[in-house]
Design a protein that fits this description.
three-stranded antiparallel β-sheet, mainly beta, oxidoreductase activity, acting on the CH-NH group of donors, NAD or NADP as acceptor, 201 residues, 14 strands, Flavin_Rdtase-like_dom, Flavin reductase like domain-containing protein, Split_barrel_FMN-bd, Pnp Oxidase, Chain A, 12% helix, seven-stranded antiparallel β-sheet, FMN binding, single chain
């Protein structure tokens, strides 16, 4: 099968995000200029550079009470900071609650019954029990072709790791249930990592 996205795929469901899988989930916490906290998961998320460490996530829809975007991007526009929390599958129900189309006054930490902790290098909350959290300062927001498509880039200014996830000097993703996003409504847990030496290593 071959199709051009502009012509449509003819399938019951769009296959695009099922092809590009698995994807890490960035559970993005932000704080509004009014001091209110927000938390939402984004599966268009990844690391993009080592030195200095940098990450990105993209938001692809909008809410009526935020104009051209969603709460996360709107808050980052105002404050220039955000925190990426890594998702443990044990928190999947809470993560799913935070994905709802709540109004901007809703505090998703409270709604999902999640403990929060204050970040160290930025004015923002993080998920206290997350396996790891990346405190970030905004470097740029790019608008992509298409309605409401924004990519947010940030430099990591602080990194939190749960002590039980550090084993033999490494951050061990098998110490928890690392949740990833597949296509459609599907998710997976990483259970079988392995090492591979590159030529020249």
């Amino acid at each position: 099968m071959f199709y051009k996205p502009e012509d449509g795929h003819g399938l019951p469901h769009n296959p695009f995000n099922a092809i590009v899988t698995p994807r890490p989930i960035g559970w993005i916490s932000t704080r509004g200029s009014d001091g209110s906290d927000n938390l939402a998961p984004y599966s268009f998320f990844n690391a993009v550079a080592y030195v200095p460490p940098q990450v990105m996530f993209s938001s692809t829809s909008a809410k009526d009470d935020r104009g051209d975007t969603k709460d996360s991007v709107a808050n980052i526009r105002d404050t220039s900071v955000f925190c990426v929390n890594i998702v443990d599958a044990d928190m999947i129900d809470a993560m799913n609650v935070t994905s709802g189309p709540w109004d901007k006054a809703t505090d998703e930490f409270t709604k999902a019954d999640l403990a929060r902790a204050e970040c160290d290098t930025i004015a923002c909350s993080r998920v206290a029990a997350a396996p790891a959290s990346l405190e970030c300062k905004l470097t740029q927001i790019l608008q992509l072709p298409g309605e409401a498509n924004f990519v947010v880039f940030g430099e990591v200014t602080g990194i939190h790791m749960r002590d039980d996830c550090i084993r033999d000097g490494r951050f061990d993703i098998t110490a928890f249930k690392l949740l990833t996003r597949l296509g459609y409504r599907d998710y997976a847990v990483v259970t079988d990592p392995f090492e591979l030496m590159r030529p020249g290593d």
